[in-house]
Amino acid sequence: MEGRLSERDRPWVMRTYAGHSSATASNALFRRNLDKGQTGLSVAFDLPTQTGYDPDDPLAAGEVGRVGVPISHLGDMRSLFAGIPLAEANTSMTINATAMWLLALYVVVAEEHGAAGAELAGTTQNDIVKEYLSRGTHIFPPGPSLRLTTDMIAWTVANAPRWNPINVCSYHLQEAGATPIQEVGFALATAVAVLDAVRDAGQVPADRMGEVVARMSFFVNSGVRFVEEMAKMRAFGALWDEITATRYEIKDPKQRRLRYGVQVNSLGLTEAQPENNIQRIVLEMLGVTLSRSARARAIQLPAWNEALGLPRPWDQQWSLRMQQVLALESDLLDYPDLFDGSPVVAALVDSIAAGARRELEQIQRLGGVVAAVESGYLKTELVASLAERRRRIESGDEVVVGVNRYVDTEPSPLTTTGADHVEQVDPGVEAHATAAVRAWREARDPAPVAAALARLRADAAGTANLMPATIACARAGVTTGEWAGALREVFGEYRAPTGLSAATGGDADHSLTAVRERVLSTAADLGGGRLRLLVGKPGLDGHSNGAEQIAVRARDAGFEVIYQGIRLTPEEIVAAAIEEDVDLVGLSVLSGSHLAAVPAVLDGLRAAGRADLPLVVGGIIPPPDADKLRAAGVARVFTPKDFALTQIVDELVDVIRTANALP
């Protein structure tokens, strides 16, 4: 037929983001998904693994195996990939601060499988910049973190040339509020910083920089405005080609090609009428597949019920089948690019590209992406942008079907099974992982461990590439917490800017004025001053978008807000509540650890003599768990269906008035 390609395009790599409970359970899930036609693996790690803690560390309490698989040492990695030939696999690992460590474990296990480094194909995300801005699993300051990234890139170019050592990740930037222009501009600024660091480090010869560029990949978000998303990716590809040709003088157009994978937008999935999430996921997939010249190399789709909890294998299968139907049943892959020559698409692409250039130039004027992180510029821009998006949703200017329009609904047969419509993590997982890591330490030879860690500290204090010392640690039986702990001793830890100082939510709706008046009158009833709200993020959960938006709206309503950022212990939250003499404590927990973290704070307040201080909680909290929290003493439980921030702040005033016996 006229217009068809002479040979049909090959489908993209199809993945599902998977991993939970234990390495053994996750291995069974991987093998089941591969048997169903999945063509690549995408590993989700739990928060202790992502932030460099072993399961028996006090900071890991309640987080082990919840949002991913715990990997504490070489034995866990062996179990994770048992029976999976790594020479044939294409493995994506969503790991950042501890990316070098997980890659080292993977390399050693691959060697045990008989696979050489040159045979390994896959990706480590390894984009630490977006962790400071949106996801919060950073450990070290920007400088040492960029060194780890640079060392990994240099090592893979020489030893694992098919491996993508970094996946510059704009996905979480969109979830944190980035517009398409900001998403492209901020991601390109990160890529420029990484390439500059590799070039300037001198570990890669100048004539091999093309190989570095060719192994740079991106991980992007695709929202429901799929026409705009398609144009965004065309603009992204054009700008990447331009930057790599001019700034780095890469001659080979194949090396300059934008190589990207996608996870479509989980932020837009709703708890209300969750069946609507299916069509959202399909439309978002179209945004990164319709344009052949800007088509994703790999796609992983969320499941319809991710706003409710951890998806089951059946839910992941449904998302995989969406990809397979599009790639194998439809005629999408039969044709050249559908949009070449379209003036509408060309104008949209040019507009996004021009805006992204301006963002990139602004970041460069500030001194580059690291300086823009440290100054708080990038975080403030994202918080403000997300506040504007929330304002549009609350005002109805931006429609979310089932949430702010067409909210009447029939009962969903998909959720009639109650708690059974999401995967349940066995409470015994953490106890088993804790015992297992202690047994691993007892069984190993301590001398090689001590020697490997001493070498790692010495190399970190100098200028040597850290990948060989990290691989030596993996072989010696070092644990995740020990590897990260050694580097913490040398590099220190980093607390990123919160971005709240200059952000404002504006007048989201006409009711904000009335809430301001209630805040003022309640403060007067309590004896003057301002109402004080402590917003706390207990545990290792770094997804701070919701907490930040509550903080911005509460401040706009007249509260004095104390927000110290992510990753606080219950003891630190209690101490801040007492020291700041707050009227209300609000906790945000999105990792599923609420039944461990929240009671710990309540117990701490009682021990400090402040059992009277009210506490509210927000997060992805199933109804049975919400009942348990209320029974434990929590005054209110907010979930994603509570999208109206001004109404939430009004309820916070109610809680304070009730706690103080005010009418």
Automatic annotation (TrEMBL):
Name listed for the protein in its UniProt record: Protein meaA
Cofactors: adenosylcob(III)alamin
InterPro entries assigned to the protein according to its UniProt record, in alphabetical order: Acid_CoA_mut_C (IPR006159), Cbl-dep_enz_cat (IPR016176), Cobalamin-bd (IPR006158), Cobalamin-bd_sf (IPR036724), MeMalonylCoA_mutase_a/b_cat (IPR006099), MMCoA_mutase_a_cat (IPR006098)
Residues covered by the B12-binding domain: 530-659
Subunit structure: Heterodimer of an alpha and a beta chain.
One Pfam short name: B12-binding
Coiled-coil portions: none
SUPFAM superfamilies noted in UniProt: Cobalamin (vitamin B12)-binding domain (SSF52242), Cobalamin (vitamin B12)-dependent enzymes (SSF51703)
Organism: Asanoa iriomotensis
CDD domains referenced in this protein's UniProt entry, alphabetically: MM_CoA_mut_B12_BD
Transmembrane portions of the chain: none
